[in-house]
Amino acid sequence: MKHELINIKNCPICSSENHTFWRKGIDHNVSNDEFNIVFCNNCGFRFTNPIPSENTIGNYYKSENYISHSSTKKGVINKLYHIVRNRAIKQKERLITSLTKEKNLLDIGCGTGDFLGYCKSQNWNAIGLEPDEDARKIALDKNKIETFDLNYLDKIESNSKDVITMWHVLEHVYNLNNDIENYKRILKPNAHLVVAVPNCSSYDADHYKEHWAALDLPIHLYHFTPNDIKNLFEKHNMELVKILPMKFDSYYISMVSEKYKGGNIISGFWRGFISNLKAKKTGKTYSSQIYVLKNIKN
Ligand SMILES: [Zn+2]
Description:
Layout: E1 5-6, E2 19-26, E3 34-40, E4 46-48, E5 51-52, H1 76-97, E6 104-108, H2 114-121, E7 125-129, H3 133-143, E8 147-148, E9 161-167, H4 176-186, E10 187-198, H5 203-208, E11 222-223, H6 226-235, E12 238-245, H7 247-260, H8 265-282, E13 288-295
Parallel strand pairs: 6-7, 6-9, 7-8, 9-10
Antiparallel strand pairs: 1-5, 2-3, 3-4, 4-11, 10-13, 12-13
Bound molecules: zinc ion.
């Protein structure tokens, strides 16, 4: 795969230059290239290093298996994924409704706009940002949602949104700290940012190690734990107010991980079940989690 690699010198959370190798992993979707994840010796944050440059990362998204932006329903896992996703969309809308009375929503990485389409039907004033042009076209044609490319983030009016959502998107963001400052600028005081990301301190992450599907190298630049989310956003004066589980992700990620290591779907399903059972005890070690962050204005 043609790419240029960028070496990350400073930890994106604490800026320390002191990090060591944590785990390697393979890009199972496109290139079969191998990538490394490092561990910050100061704050514990794990991040992919080196990473493909922002100009070349697009090549790694060109996969038939990359389903989050598509409407294809090939294969058992994909079918299941799409059924559960529709139910999840309603749960997500209920969550954001519980946070605010005013309904101005920005969804970053909105894909084909299915979530925003549903929100619009529930009287949200909703726009989306999405880098993929084909996905944006579907968002407009199918869901009647106005979407923009990522550069539009700078143009969105300050103090204008009641909620910003990022469903499995933050782990892909290149200019992490700059963009978070921009989210803060756009949010009203005490408004919320809702972020869903995989949890690399979950049982299934630990069980599958380098085969864990949610490592998703190299397009996942960061491998968050709940503590990392708290540290990262505290730095930007945003308070972590709630953690919610995404219980289906444990099953989905475990089943795909089994596929990567040559196991079978049933074992994956079982691991997903165990992962959720173990996470229930702690309430914050699910395979993927939703983090609700409150914007404390300086
Ligand atoms: Zn650090």
